[in-house]
Structure formats: C-alpha cells, structure tokens
Amino acid sequence: MDVHAAVSERTGSAPGRVNLIGEHTDYNGGFALPLAIPARTTARVRARDDGVVAAESTAPGTEPARFAVDSSPGDVTGWAAYVAGVFWALRDAGHDVPGADVRVDSTVPSGAGLSSSHALECAVAVTLNDLHGLGLDRTTLALLVQRAENHYVGAPTGAMDQMASLYGQDGHVILFDARAMTAEPVPCDLAGAGLSLVVVDTRVHHEHTGGGYGARRATCEAAAALLGVKTLREVQDELVKDVLAQLEDDVMVRRVRHVLTENARVLDTVALLRAGRPGEIGPLLTASHTSMRDDYEITVAEVDVAVEAALTAGALGARMTGGGFGGSVIALTAAADEARVGDAVRAAFDQHGYAPPSVFTVRPAAGAGIEESTQ
C-alpha cells in the first residue's frame, strides 16, 4: 500500500470572508481590509494510492467528480475545478501529493461575493498540507491557491481572499498588503462599540471568471505600464491628480482613481480602528461604494438599491463587498438599528420587484485550520 494511504483522513476548514474595505486593490499591489466570517467550508480528505481524486460536495446541484491527480488546466471544469486546481498547484510546485477522496461541505453562500471558492480551495489546501506533512506556511499556501485560481480555474484574482481565509482572527480584521504579502491583524470590536455589520446577499450571482473582472485588471496593468511602474501601488504616494494627468483615456483615468483613493480609504479605516473609533468608518465605506459604482463601474442595480436603502434607514455606512457585478452589500449600523436596516432593504427589493435578499450579520472570525485528525 502507498505510504500516504496508510495515513488516516484529515478534516480541515476555511472561512469565507467579508471585505470591510479595499476592493480591486490587491492585484494592484495595494491594501485591503478583509475579515474572516463564521461561515466555513469543510474538506474531509483521505489519501488513495491509485492516482485518482474522487470529489463530492453536499451543495445542491453539484455532481461527484473523478479525475486524475495529475490533471492539467482545462481537464476539470465546474465546482470540482477548484479542488483539482489545488492538487495541480501543489504538484506543480514539486509536492508529491497523491490522489484522494475529498468530501466538501459548506455554509458559505455561493456566488454572494463572500469568497466561497477561496474558502473551498483553502480548506483543501490546509488539509492536504497537514495530511501529508508538507510544512507549508500560510502565505505559501495562499500563493499556491492564487495560482490554482488564476491558472487552473481561469479567474484572474489577487491574493486578498486567500490571505483573509488563512490568516483570519477572532475580533480582528486583517490589513493585507499585497506588495509585501503580509497580513496584519487589526482589532475590530464592533459589538463592544454597540455596532453591527449587516450583510445583504442580493442573490445576484457573480463569478470572477467573467470578462468584467479581467478587463478591469488589464486596464490597471496597462495604466501601470504607461506610468512606468510595475503596479499602481508604486504611485500611491503621489498626488492623485498628477498621476491621472499622465493618462489620456477617460476609462483608464477612472479605474486608476478608484484604486488610488481606495487604498487611501483602507489606511484611513485602519487608523480609526486602531484609535478605537469604529463608529466613524461609515463615511469611508460609503465613499468606497460610490467609487466602485462611478469610477470602477462594478455594481449592479440590486447592489445600489441595497446600499441606498440601508443608508436611508440609518446605516452609518454601506458598500458593495467582493469583486462586483452582483454579490453582497455590507452595512455598518448601530446594533439597535440592525433590524430596521434589514427590513428597509427587503422592502426596497420588494418595491423594485427583485427576489428577496438574504440578510444576516457577521463578526470577525478565526481563519483556516484542521478540525480533526484521526489515526
């Protein structure tokens, strides 16, 4: 029997995430401020010695999948591509990971902008890392998962979601510096300040493999090339108006303006949280949404309606969270106003003839880990 097959199964899990602020900044070398959420994806993995990965998910509408452990990009599609991509990335990096039975279960809503795909990939990655004693640190795992997402699944995402899922901490948001690839915990005791973070899943499905995400990334990369820098982060300390004056295309101007001003909003939010003033970050969240709507053009009608309804009902700030083109909205509210804000969003959706949204609250939760180890 293969030596790996003698090792008993492992079960690991990884959380979804909410990005408090800092959208489309990670692939530009910038800053983001995500938090891991209580909703998690669990991966139960048992090694096998026949070179096959047999994957199954409890999610509705998913079919079991079988594929070779040495599959290549394009060989596996659908939900199982996220599993196959992790095996591919680990093996491509020189780790002798054998086939396995993989069973996935998740409470992270799919397509809601809460990083369900990265929760799945990170859960599989941490479990394989533990099962086979690979000894990989979390930043290395994040980069391998990003490689799986980019080159196997075909979604041109940055590394923010993975770092949030892997480095999340109870009671903290994570200051992610994409250039330095660091994840610094920042205290964020919303409940202690009498605040709630409300999530509105608009039920408008989004996915990063669509063309809109990639087009915006390509525009930012083209702008950086015109400015003579590797990423837009390198011009972060210059005056925004001076940077924009070097760009002639209006679309490019607006995309770059969003990235530079969003990085500044992240750092301003961090300063307020470190000063123990979380109730004052609301206007920064709302300004972020305005920038995503007008300059980056990644919101949709349902998202904009949810933000407007939340603000009208008394939310301190609200913004879309996630890659855009659907997904979820977050609203910072006084704890006493939480229900009123949720009711206002539901009423607005009903008035516009939209499907009812899912409304719930989140708190900063723990990152990925091994849930059990059996021998």
TrEMBL record:
Family according to the record: Belongs to the GHMP kinase family. GalK subfamily.
GO MF term list: ATP binding; galactokinase activity; metal ion binding
Protein name as catalogued: Galactokinase
PANTHER family, A to Z: GALACTOKINASE-RELATED, MEVALONATE KINASE/GALACTOKINASE
Domain spans labelled GHMP kinase C-terminal: 271-350
EC number, UniProt record: 2.7.1.6
PROSITE patterns associated with the record: GALACTOKINASE
InterPro entries noted in UniProt: Galactokinase, Galactokinase_CS, GalKase_N, GHMP_kinase_C_dom, GHMP_kinase_C_sf, GHMP_kinase_N_dom, Mevalonate/galactokinase, Ribosomal_Su5_D2-typ_SF
GO terms (BP aspect): galactose metabolic process
Keywords annotated in UniProt: ATP-binding, Carbohydrate metabolism, Cytoplasm, Galactose metabolism, Kinase, Magnesium, Metal-binding, Nucleotide-binding, Transferase
Presence of the UniProt keyword Cell membrane in the record: no
Domain of life: Bacteria
GHMP kinase N-terminal domain residues: 82-169
One Gene Ontology CC term in the entry: cytosol
Pfam name, any one: GHMP_kinases_C
Gene this chain is encoded by: galK
All residue ranges annotated as the Galactokinase N-terminal domain in the record: 10-46
Top-rank EC class of the record's enzyme: transferase
